[in-house]
Amino acid sequence: MIQIKTAHEIELMRASGLVTAGAIRAVRAAVRPGVSTGELDAIAEDHIRSAGAVPNFLGYHGFTGTICASINDEVVHGIPSPDRTLAEGDNISIDCGAVLAGWHSDSAVTVTVGEASAGDAELLAVTEQSMWAGLAKAIAGGRLTDISHAVEESIVAHEHRYGIVDHYGGHGIGTEMHQDPHVLNYGRAGRGPKLVPGLVLAIEPMVTIGDPATAELDDGWTVVTKDGSRAAHFEHSVAITPEGPWVLTAEDGGVAGLAPFGVTARSQ
Ligand code: MG
Ligand code: MG
């Protein structure tokens, strides 16, 4: 069932989104060679709890972290650990969420530790750009797969043939972290549920440099590329409002990210 939020509920979700945005900012600032993903996890948890919120990943189907920390060929769902340290040139995807006053938020970013190779820099840019292309279609009057199609079009527009991870995708979000509808990162436009004010979605492309086939590790969580190629993951939670998309987990509401698409985001 698709949950449609009132304007007031979306305000509450914005407050939750800003907590997640702050947690990701804090973790990102701590990324450096030698830091463990366990330390990054503690930074996120501290930030979320000091804001009066609760980490929504922690305990989710038994997950032991506040963040998912996925390195290099790990696509999503990496488990943070004090024994896993970052090295120069690693890519780390930080996925994080919070629940505040009963409302969930969910966001992810991939960053390179230190200097990025040209290939990694492009992978990250392509993935982030495809997320913004999808967010730009979070407009009342459209259909769900307009978003999926925009994400895919953005990725396939590049000369290098990037992989789009199958099956995994975005989702509705609200009083639960994962709600209907599922948002694929590919597909024909113009299908699926109508996009209406009050619909809130997490849009999250997962892109690989090589083949998009994935496997789950024996830990029951970590999703890796089968060919060992590197992956990237970006995510924002966005509300469809009468005034346009409101990117709840972006500190500026999505203004800067959506401007290149000619879309005016609500800023606050
Ligand atoms: Mg997420
Ligand atoms: Mg998500």
Q: In short, what is this structure?
A:
This protein has helices at 7-30, 37-50, 118-135, 144-156, 255-258, and strands at residues 54-55, 67-71, 74-76, 91-100, 103-112, 163-164, 170-172, 179-183, 200-203, 206-208, 214-216, 223-225, 231-233, 236-241, 244-247. With 268 residues, it is α+β, with helices and mostly antiparallel strands.
Molecular structure report:
- The chain is of the alpha+beta class.
- Helices cover 27% and strands 25% of the residues.
- It is built from 5 helices and 15 strands.
- It has helices spanning 7-30, 37-50, 118-135, 144-156, 255-258; strands spanning 54-55, 67-71, 74-76, 91-100, 103-112, 163-164, 170-172, 179-183, 200-203, 206-208, 214-216, 223-225, 231-233, 236-241, 244-247.
- The protein has a 5-stranded antiparallel beta sheet.
- Strand 7 and strand 8 (179-183) form a beta hairpin.
- Helix 1 (7-30) packs antiparallel against helix 2 (37-50) and helix 3 packs antiparallel against helix 4 (144-156).
- It is globular.
- The relative contact order is 0.18.
- The model has no long low-confidence stretch (mean pLDDT 97).
- Bound molecules: magnesium ion (MG) (2 copies).
- One magnesium ion is lined by residues 106, 171, 202, 204, 235.
- Residues 95, 97, 106, 108, 235 line the site of one magnesium ion.
Low confidence ranges: none
Task: Report the bound ligands by name, code or SMILES.
Answer: magnesium ion
What is the CA-atom radius of gyration, in angstroms? 17 Å
Q: Which H/E pattern describes the elements?
A: HHEEEEEHHEEEEEEEEEEH
**Average pLDDT number:** 97
DSSP helical segment count: 5
Strand segment count: 15
User: Strands of the largest sheet, in order across it?
Assistant: 8-7-9-14-15
Largest sheet: 5 strands, antiparallel
Shape: globular
Structural class of the secondary structure composition?
Answer: alpha+beta
Looking at the chains present, what oligomeric state does this protein adopt? Answer: single chain
Q: How big a fraction of the residues is strand?
A: 15-25%
Helix content: 25-40%
